[in-house]
């Protein structure tokens, strides 16, 4: 298995942007675990399956589902769904479905297999605690809920998606509660993860802080 740099943190903390830049800078592969959950949520919703469905129904749907993250794109049953999964609705359903053990079990090996043949930067909400507990280096990237909501609002506005600032705040608060409060693999900082608060930092400053920590790693 290659070296793994795992980055956890809440929605809107900047994990995706930083992970991509870090992977490019180090020559590592990049894994967006959140995109995998969004793709699963899309696949389940396309089949009309609700989060309250039985484990057996979920297992049946997942058994014929193929999800891949390749070259920065997410594929669902060989179809590029990179754009489709980036909606507020899929963000909601990915958070809800991710609380189901059968869904997390389905994606666990897919995520771990990504590190078998290459060095990897993986980002998500349980990469440091569950997926890669023995990662070479761990980081927990955070920011105030106000700042994360502001970033989300600007991101969606740039994409032409109708969302207000108050809706972005509501979504951030609700997702934090779901991700941190779930019984299964809750969002939390690993004891050995380096905490970085990006609230008042530029992207370059966050990246430099991480690079400094990586450079001193044995």
Beta-strand residue percentage: 15-25%
Helix amount, in percent? 40-55%
Give the CATH topology: Rossmann fold
| Number of separate helices | 9
Calculate the mean pLDDT score and round it. 91
How many E-type strands? 8
Radius of gyration: 17 Å
Which structural class do the helices and strands define? alpha/beta
Spans of at least 5 consecutive residues whose pLDDT stays below 50 are none
| Biggest beta sheet attributes | 5 strands, parallel
CATH C-level = Alpha Beta
Envelope shape: globular
Widest sheet: strand ordering: 2-6-1-7-8
**Overall tally of structural domains:** 1
Describe this structure in words.
The protein starts with a strand and ends with a helix. The protein is α/β, with parallel strands linked by helices and 218 residues long. The strands form two sheets. It has a five-stranded parallel beta sheet with strand order 2-6-1-7-8. The mean pLDDT is 91. The chain has a single domain, classed as 3-Layer(aba) Sandwich (Rossmann fold), CATH 3.40.50.300. It is globular, with a radius of gyration of 17 Å.
């Amino acid at each position: 298995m290659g070296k793994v740099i795992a980055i956890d943190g809440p929605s809107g903390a900047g994990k995706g942007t930083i992970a991509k830049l870090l992977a490019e800078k180090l020559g590592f592969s990049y894994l967006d675990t959140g995109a995998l959950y969004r793709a699963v949520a899309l696949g389940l919703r396309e089949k009309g399956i609700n989060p309250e469905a039985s484990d057996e129904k979920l297992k049946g749907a997942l058994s014929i589902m193929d999800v891949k993250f390749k070259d920065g794109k997410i594929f669902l049953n060989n179809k590029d769904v990179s754009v489709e999964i980036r909606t507020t609705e899929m963000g909601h359903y990915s958070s809800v479905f991710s609380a189901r053990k059968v869904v997390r079990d389905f994606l666990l090996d897919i995520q771990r297999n990504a590190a078998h043949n290459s060095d990897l930067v993986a980002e998500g909400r349980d990469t440091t605690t569950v997926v890669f507990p023995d990662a070479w280096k761990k980081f927990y990237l955070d920011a105030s809920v106000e700042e994360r909501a502001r970033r989300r609002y600007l991101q969606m506005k740039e994409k032409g998606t109708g969302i207000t600032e108050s809706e972005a705040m509501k979504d951030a608060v609700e997702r934090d509660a779901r991700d941190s409060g779930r019984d299964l693999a809750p969002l939390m900082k690993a004891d050995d993860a380096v905490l970085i608060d990006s609230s008042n930092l530029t992207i370059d400053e966050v990246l430099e802080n991480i690079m400094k920590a990586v450079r001193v790693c044995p």
